[in-house]
């Protein structure tokens, strides 16, 4: 006669065995990811009826079919077709509020000295009216200063004047549109523990940390749907259209020096562009992954060597590469071959999430795997699932524990 405890143990065993054999349900998605209607065509279900060897990869073509026309000129693929025309107002070195400058007039102790461009964007010299400096070159400021000194009666003839930038101040720039983290970013400046004393003592200053590309990267980098042909920069009420496609082609381009109050807007083409999924000065600096790894044989991140170099992968990494990097692939074929991995992502244009799952061995075997191997995006998560054999072995372990508990009076 079975005891009540024994009956409970048998019930638990039966339930565990049934759950081990049950097929998990497919994930439900709002967007039609299974047919290529989500952010990436690579999300769609694998077509097992196609001849994988002879199939031409179609995902990039499916993605491109959704694209709106370029807002700027259509590229021709030649070096001269990228980069566009940069207005003179955006060329060269310009001043911003907070910049430290040195004004030098030979033999003059009244006006010579160090000055900080004021919050209102002007250079304020003693005894004369403030001189506009925000967004202007040092030569333009010098010309106005000379005119003010002569008209004020301080000089009868044109004096020799030098205006040198001694330090570029950090600036705040608003970045919106097709970037991963639209926000107001602060760029420029050097941390106190990295000050170069030799440069501090020298006349003049230079910086790359206040460039347009830095602002875009600090806002998370451009998204794959960005229209780089028509990036808008608004400065002092005037909007300029910039072509940044050269930044992804390895061609030289003018990296605009930003000033305080600038506004950047990156328009969207409304589609996923595979050719933007490469490291570049304006792409995300990398991708930090959220991983849920295997129970067997990976019992945790530390013993599985899942550290920072695994959780952070280069921009342009694909799903299968990350799954391998996360220790989800390999091992004994008899027990580990039938693993699968799930990707949790989000459409940055609509903010709607998507979940897809891939059989690791199916991806390994197919020649057209790239058609179903999505690119990873910032904030993506990966979960790995063990094979059926491993599931049964885990069930057996639990059943053994239950049986031991039942046997103990």
Task: Give a written overview of the molecule.
InterPro entries: Poly_export, Poly_export_N, SLBB_dom. Residues 1-22 form the signal peptide. Residues 94-165 form the Polysaccharide export protein N-terminal domain. With 409 residues, the protein is α+β, with helices and mostly antiparallel strands. Helix content is 22%, strand content 18%. The protein has a five-stranded mixed beta sheet with strand order 7-6-10-8-9, with helices on one face. Strands 12-16-14-15 form a four-stranded mixed beta sheet. Strands 2-1-5 form a three-stranded antiparallel beta sheet, with helices on one face. Strand 14 (340-347) and strand 15 (352-359) form a beta hairpin. Helix 1 (4-21) packs antiparallel against helix 10. The longest helix has 20 residues, at 388-407. 30% of the residues are buried. Residues 76-81 and 389-406 have low confidence and may be disordered.
Layout of helices and strands, plus pairs?
Elements: H1 4-21, H2 59-64, E1 100-104, E2 113-116, E3 122-123, E4 131-132, H3 138-151, E5 162-167, E6 171-177, E7 183-187, H4 197-201, H5 212-218, E8 231-235, E9 238-242, E10 263-266, E11 287-288, E12 290-292, H6 308-311, E13 312-313, H7 319-325, H8 333-336, E14 340-347, E15 352-359, H9 360-365, E16 381-385, H10 388-407
Parallel strand pairs: 6-10, 12-16
Antiparallel strand pairs: 1-2, 1-5, 3-4, 6-7, 8-9, 8-10, 11-13, 14-15, 14-16
Helix pairs in contact: 1-10
